[in-house]
Amino acid sequence: MEKGEDSRRFNPKGPRRESDKMRAETNIRRDRASINKGVLSADHATADFLKGMSHELHTPLNVIIGLCQILDRDRATTLSPTQRDAVERMERNAQSLLHTIDHLLACLRSGHFD
User: Fold this and answer.
1) Are 84 and 72 in contact, with CB atoms under 8 Å apart?
2) By CB atoms within 10 Å of each CB, which of 53, 70, 93, 98 scores lowest?
């Protein structure tokens, strides 16, 4: 009997340890794949949410801005100085709010708040 054969015969844990190691590596790969799939799913959900929020917030603000611009530029519509001032203020505030929303959505997309 060779010395190498003898040590393999009396070391029953050797192949078993190798099998356990391979099984553990397989489990780790499977777990990683599952985690990656979950992360991708969460990323898609976040992107869909941000797209929806962007649309839901931009649409009414763009309508307000457009109507203010029409009222401000339409010479057929006579506005008093107080009304003209109110329209200009509404447009300015809507533009400011739109800028704030764009900044907030950009921060949410990037994950950095500054």
Assistant:
1) yes
2) 70
**Tens digit of pLDDT at every position of the chain (114 positions):** 455 555 555 555 556 677 888 888 888 888 888 888 888 887 788 888 888 888 898 999 999 999 999 998 888 878 899 999 999 999 999 999 999 999 988 888 887 776
Which residue, 67, 46, 95, is CA-closest to 103? 95
Q: Domain count of the chain?
A: 1
What's the whole-model pTM score?
A: 0.59
DSSP state of 76: T
Residue in 108, 79, 107 with CA at minimum distance from that of residue 91: 79
